[in-house]
Design goal:
Length: 211
């Protein structure tokens, strides 16, 4: 039995139809071949399951990983929901809900839950002072989009400084996460902030996410 080959009832290459009784050959941590198993003994038999590529969650807020239910009921208006999010974050900042270590634990739990669910890559929308160490040690690949808000000139200047510091942090040798920028939304990020972020994105080839 080849230890670098894995067989399952179904293999989903995604680029072509599913393979009944497929086999995946891996070498040096990379997929080399996906094909039909030629014999029952070919590869380690994973049984009655499916092999498929890792999932990608392009928009996560791992700081909310401890919530057991949504912050608002179905049908709640957007302004009401936003107020609840602001209240929740305000309570966090004031230490009414958690200390810094608890915040770190929440994000770590979110990363672990993502991994256990088959997620291989996340696009995390991160607020200030997010724990870089967790993304350095997680087996999940991450693009961390720094959340930017600002309607006044002073806030826009502050966002520019934060953006460049975020990109510099990601450029350190050995860093295991990629940097992204996220002007929050049209109602929280001014046109000037949006244009400023777009220009920096073009200069540095940095991805941008926006609500």
């Amino acid at each position: 039995m080849n230890p670098n080959m894995f067989r399952a009832r179904w293999v989903f290459p995604v680029s072509r139809p599913p393979i009944n009784g497929g086999v995946v050959r891996i070498q040096n941590g990379l997929i080399q071949e996906v094909s039909q198993a030629q014999q029952e003994t070919e590869g380690a038999d994973l049984g009655n399951c499916a092999i498929l590529p890792g999932l990608v969650n392009v928009h996560t807020h791992l700081e909310f990983s401890q919530l057991t239910e949504p912050l608002a009921e179905a049908g709640t208006s957007l302004p009401t929901w936003i107020r609840r999010v602001i209240e929740y974050r305000s309570q966090q900042a004031q230490g009414q809900l958690s200390d810094q270590q608890t915040s770190i634990n929440r994000i770590n739990n979110g990363l672990v839950e993502s991994q256990n669910s088959g997620t291989a890559l996340v696009g995390e929308i991160a607020t200030r002072q997010w724990p870089t160490s967790l993304f350095e040690s997680s087996p999940i690949s991450s693009t961390v989009f720094l959340e930017l808000m600002g309607l006044s000139d002073d806030r826009v200047k502050d966002a520019a400084q934060m953006s460049r510091a975020h990109l510099q942090l990601a450029s350190r040798p050995g860093t295991r996460w990629n940097a992204g920028l996220s002007p929050h939304a049209p109602y929280t990020a001014s046109l000037q902030l949006g244009e400023q972020t777009a220009k920096l994105s073009a200069e540095t080839d940095t991805p941008v996410a926006m609500h």
